[in-house]
Specification:
Keywords: Oxidoreductase
CATH class of the largest domain: Alpha Beta
CATH architecture of the largest domain: 3-Layer(aba) Sandwich
Radius of gyration: 23 Å
GO biological process, one term: tyrosine biosynthetic process
Strand content: 5-15%
Mean pLDDT: 94
Protein name: Prephenate/arogenate dehydrogenase domain-containing protein
Pfam families: PDH_N, TYRAAT1_C
Oligomer: single chain
CATH topology of the largest domain: Rossmann fold
Largest sheet: 8 strands, mixed
Structural class: alpha/beta
Shape: elongated
GO molecular function: arogenate dehydrogenase (NADP+) activity; NAD+ binding; prephenate dehydrogenase (NAD+) activity; prephenate dehydrogenase (NADP+) activity
Low-confidence stretches: none
Helix content: 40-55%
Distance between the termini: 72 Å
């Protein structure tokens, strides 16, 4: 069943964003265009940028929480999530609120949110599988993963999900946080790892590029646009990433052994011929 089938129309929401870096700004622009009201709180002073966007910016977190947001969207880095949430004065919340996150790992934020938030707060774990570059021409047919961890207010949850499904045209994929992290370790983490290996090798364009090599260069460039904090978070806070790193290392060793074995075969053949 699609998200929109549970509600005939979406409601304009008041969405508070914690952490207003580039990805949060990217999401906020679409949300504003859809008629939602956005407030923001961040350790960095984004007051001027928020003014230009039409976003109410709070330096005072207590005032931010007292603004009675329908949804509070967590857009911190993976590695700072626990620290940020544990310093938020949640007692200032005036009413039950839906908390959602957009982190690239899912089990970690689920556990932190369940541990830190009041029992009456709803929790929705999400991962938009796109960003400012891949989503710059719209979100249609891009994948949005979500897990309804603890939802009581179906109307608010549905209205928030419809931002991505009906309005933006995303492919909505509901799956458990565990299943997401298993898949992400094999896809996203490995992609970032290969990109960073290529960067360490300092590969550059040549006059005789093949299409495959151009793809590798693009992979390296796209990967290095993301911070090392993001990459380390994909490793430190996804329990399946360590195994995938070991699998990658083993695969490299196996290929190397096969190549060296072929070298020995050729040397033995040359010796016989001589």
């Amino acid at each position: 069943m699609s998200v929109s089938s549970s509600s005939s129309s979406s409601t304009n929401l008041k969405i508070g964003i914690i952490g207003f870096g580039p990805f949060a700004q990217f999401l906020a622009k679409t949300m504003i265009n859809q008629g939602h009201t956005i407030t923001a709180a961040s350790r960095t002073d984004y007051s001027e940028l928020c003014h230009d966007l039409g976003v109410s910016f709070f330096r005072d977190v207590e005032a931010f929480l007292e603004a009675e947001n329908d949804v509070i969207l967590i857009c911190t880095s993976i590695v700072s999530l626990s620290e940020v949430l544990k310093t938020i004065p949640l007692h200032c919340l005036k009413r039950p609120t839906l908390f959602a996150d957009v982190l690239s790992v899912k089990e970690h934020p689920r556990e932190v949110l369940l541990q830190v938030l009041p029992e009456h707060s709803d929790i929705l774990c999400t991962h938009p599988m796109f960003g400012p570059e891949s989503g710059k021409n719209g979100w249609k047919d891009l994948t949005f993963v979500y897990d309804r961890v603890r939802i009581r207010n179906e109307a608010t949850c549905s209205s928030f999900l419809q931002i991505f499904e009906r309005e933006a045209g995303c492919i909505m994929l509901e799956m458990s946080c565990e299943e997401h992290d298993k898949m992400a370790a094999r896809s996203q983490f490995i992609t970032h790892t290969i990109g960073r290996i290529l960067s360490e090798m300092e590969i550059k364009s040549t006059p005789i590029n093949t299409k495959g090599f151009e793809t590798l260069i693009q992979l390296k460039e796209n990967t290095m646009k993301d911070s090392f904090d993001l990459y380390s978070g994909l490793f430190l806070h996804n329990r399946f990433s360590k195994q995938e790193l070991e699998n990658l290392e083993l695969a490299f060793k196996n290929i190397k052994l096969r190549l060296l074995g072929r070298v020995n075969e050729v040397q033995d053949l040359d010796y016989i011929i001589r």
